[in-house]
């Protein structure tokens, strides 16, 4: 069942150790194996581990043993646990596999980077964030195709080690994604607007719709379904991502509330919604017409590579090969 496909010819392809086998971690393990990468994983839940083993994957509930293996084989460790569990996971890595390269798939980057630094692992870490997912969770809903043509942010901070950066970027590419380089705090400000704020708005729409009673819900169709899709996500996961990006999300939420308040004032005083509707339509059109281009000619480790990668990411650059 777990037949390897094409593996990258790049030299930066260490074994992969995935800690956490939920939707993202489980999909990553599947995708890495399909790409021909040696990979194994850990999950606390025996039920998830048993399900993954039944599907033919090399996984275990023994975190110490998994990390000791990662240390012995100089694996790239991928932290795929929810944000509240990151600190505990890093403590285990610092104790049992401090020599390994480390990345993660958590939706907040600055807070994870700070936690890594507190464990003295900053020189081994380059963050990551695949912009892919569904409202479902758990091993059973994962798929090796989840990352196909998805954006995968690779943290491009001032102290990024070029070799580890390349390992993380190559893993993203092997999983089928395109890489966008971004600095951690800049990433967090961006995802507050296009990921975390939409979650809170979806929750708001869901509550407002349900408050209309059975008739309102009985009439709900595409706009309500699409607008509230992510409200079906596990509340603990939504809270973790939103609360972990508190400051950036507060700024985005303040702007959204101002837009809604202005729309209410205009509707009340002028019986019009033109300002918000027209601006929203124009913004959506901008999104649909967003142009991207392929990054080339920037070599990790060469002088100025970090600034060049960040600038390319800001301007719509995508890395499709190393």
Description:
The protein contains 13 helices and 10 strands. It is an alpha/beta fold and 322 residues long. It folds into 2 domains: 195 residues, Rossmann fold; 101 residues, 6-phosphogluconate dehydrogenase C-terminal fold, CATH 1.10.3660. A 5-stranded parallel β-sheet has the order 3-2-1-4-5, sandwiched between helices. A 3-stranded mixed β-sheet has the order 6-7-8. The protein has a two-stranded parallel sheet with strand order 9-10. The longest helix is centred in the middle third of the chain and has 27 residues. It starts with 15 loop residues before the first strand and ends with a strand. The N terminus is likely disordered.
Task: Based on the model shown, name its key terms.
alpha/beta, five-stranded parallel beta sheet, Rossmann fold, 6-phosphogluconate dehydrogenase C-terminal fold, 322 residues
State the order of secondary-structure elements, H for helix, E for strand. EHEHEHEHEHEEHEHHHHHHEHE
Give the overall form: globular
Count every beta strand, where a strand is a DSSP E run of 2 or more residues: 10
Proportion in helices: 40-55%
Widest β-sheet, arrangement of strands:
3-2-1-4-5
- Using the coordinates shown, work out and report the CATH topology of the largest domain: Rossmann fold
């Amino acid at each position: 069942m777990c037949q390897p496909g094409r593996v990258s010819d790049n030299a930066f392809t260490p074994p992969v150790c995935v800690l956490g086998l939920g939707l993202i971690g489980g999909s990553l393990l599947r995708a890495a194996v399909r790409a021909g990468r040696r990979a194994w994983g850990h999950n606390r839940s025996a039920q998830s581990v048993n399900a993954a083993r039944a599907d033919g994957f090399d996984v275990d509930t023994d975190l110490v043993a998994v990390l000791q293996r990662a240390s012995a084989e100089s694996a790239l460790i991928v932290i795929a646990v929810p944000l509240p569990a990151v600190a505990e996971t890093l403590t285990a890595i610092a104790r049992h596999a401090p020599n390994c390269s480390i990345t993660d798939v958590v939706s907040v980057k600055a807070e994870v980077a700070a936690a890594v630094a507190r464990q003295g692992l900053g020189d081994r870490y380059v963050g990551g964030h695949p912009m892919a997912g569904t409202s479902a969770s758990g091993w059973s809903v994962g798929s090796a195709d989840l990352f196909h043509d998805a954006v995968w942010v690779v943290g491009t901070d001032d102290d990024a080690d070029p070799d580890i950066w390349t390992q993380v970027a190559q893993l993203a590419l092997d999983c089928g994604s395109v890489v966008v380089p971004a600095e951690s705090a800049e990433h967090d400000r961006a995802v507050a607007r296009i990921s975390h704020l939409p979650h809170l708005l979806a929750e708001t729409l869901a509550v407002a719709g349900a408050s209309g009673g059975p008739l309102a819900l009985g009439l709900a169709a595409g706009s309500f379904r699409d607008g509230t899709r992510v409200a079906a996500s596990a509340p603990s996961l939504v809270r973790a991502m939103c609360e972990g990006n508190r400051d950036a999300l507060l700024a985005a939420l303040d702007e959204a509330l101002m837009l809604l308040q202005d729309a209410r004032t205009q509707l009340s005083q002028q019986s019009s919604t033109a300002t918000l509707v027209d601006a929203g339509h124009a913004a959506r059109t901008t999104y649909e017409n967003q142009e991207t281009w392929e990054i080339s000619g920037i070599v990790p480790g060469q002088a100025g590579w970090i600034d060049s990668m960040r600038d390319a990411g800001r301007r719509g650059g995508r890395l499709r090969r190393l």
